[in-house]
Amino acid sequence: MSSIKSTGSQKPVYAILIAISVAHLLNDLLQAVIPAIYPKLEAKFNLTFAQVGMITLCYQLAASIFQPVVGAYTDKNPKPYSQIFGMLFTMAGIALLAYAPNYEMILVSVILVGIGSSIFHPESSRVAFMASNGRRSFAQSVFQIGGNTGTALAPLLIAWIVLPNGQLYILWFVGFAILAQIVLGYIAKWYSNKLKIASRSTKKVIQVPDLSAFKINSAIAILLILIFSKYFYVASITSYFQFYTMDKFGLNEVQAQVYLFYFLISVAVGTLLGGIFGDRFGRKYVIWFSVLGAAPFTLALPYVDMHLTGILIVIIGLIISSAFPAILVYAQELLPKKLGMVSGLFYGFAFGMGGVGSAVLGLWADATSIQYIYHICSFLPLIGIIAYFLPNMQKVKYKDVA
Predict the structure, then answer these.
(1) Is residue 106 within 8 Å of residue 43, measured between CB atoms?
(2) What pTM, to 2 d.p., does this model score?
(3) In Å, how far are 13, 63, 189, 350 from 116, measured between CA atoms?
(4) What fold, for 14-195+204-401?
(5) Which tens digit of pLDDT belongs to each residue from 339-375?
(6) Inter-residue contact 387 to 288 (CB < 8 Å)
(7) Where are the domains of the chain?
(8) Which of 6, 79, 139, 269 is the most buried (most CB within 10 A)?
C-alpha cells in the first residue's frame, strides 16, 4: 500500500530537485529585478516611498491572488507545462519594464511579472514534493534556496549591468527567462512521465493526520499569522533597506545594493539549513526558533553602526529564512490531499503580505522617516511566540484515506 509518508527506502530525485531549484533561481532573479531597480526608478521618475510601495503591492498582489486558484485547479488537473506558460508572462513583464516610459507602465510591467510568478510556484512546489521521496523539508529547502539565491543575485547584477548604463539594460535579463524555459521543459517531461505512470497504477492511499477540523484550521491560521510577521518584516528589508543604508550611513546606490545582498544571500543559506533541521528535529521547533529567534537581532538593528548593521542583517537573514520550508511542509502534512492549493495559498499569502507591507511601510516612511519604520518593524518577530500552540506533527497519529 502506498502512502504519502516516506518509507525511507528511496532517495530524492536529485536531478529534478536541482533542476527545479535552478528554475526557481531564474524565476525569482527576474522577480527581484523589480525591488533592485527601485533606486534607479526613484531617481528617474522622482517617485515617493508610497509610489515605490505601490509598485511592490501591484506586483505582489498579482503574484498572490492567483496562486491558490492555480494550485486548487492543478490539484485536480495537473499541468506539467504550465510553468513554461507562466514564464512567458514574466518575460513580457521584464521586457516592458526595460522600456517603461512612465510610472503607469511600470505598474503594468510588474503585474505581468507577478502573474508569471503565480503560475510558476504551485506546480513547481508540487514537483519538489514529488521528487522528495519523503525528505520533504529537505526537498522544499533545495527548491527554496534556488529562489533565494536568485533574489540575492539580482541586486548585484542590477548594480553591474543596469545602474551604470540605464533602465534599457534591464532587457538583458530576458536571457535568463529564455534559459528558464529550457530548464522547465526538461522538468515538464519528467513530470509528464510521472503522471503517465501514476495513471496506469492503482490509486494511492494517502495518510492524513488524525486531527479534528478545528485543530487543522487553527494550525493553518497560526502558520498564516507567522507568515504575516515574517514577510512584513522581510518587506521592510527588500523594498527599503537600500534607502535606509543610504540615508543613515551615506552609502551610494552600489554600496547599498551590497548590503541588501548580504541579507539576501544569508536568506538563501538559512533556507537550506531550515529544511535540513526541519527533517531532523521537527518542523514545529524550527518554525518557533526561526520567527521568534530573530527578535533580539531585529530589535538591536536600528541602534547599531554601519559595520554591526552588516553583521546583524546576516544573522537576521539566516534565522528568519529557515522558517518557510518548515511552514510550507507542515501545512502540506496537515492537508496532504490539497498540495497545490496549500502551496498556492502559502506562497500567495507570503507574496501578498510582502506587497501590503511594502505599501504600508512606504506611506509610513513618507509620513515619518525611513529609519523610523525599522524601529517599528523590529517588534514583528515577537509574534513567533504563537508557534508554541502548533501540534507536534511527529507525535500525531495518521489514518489512511483513498
Answers:
(1) no
(2) 0.71
(3) 26, 7, 20, 16
(4) Growth Hormone; Chain: A; (1.20.1250)
(5) 777 877 887 787 778 778 888 888 898 899 989 999 9
(6) yes
(7) 14-195+204-401
(8) 139
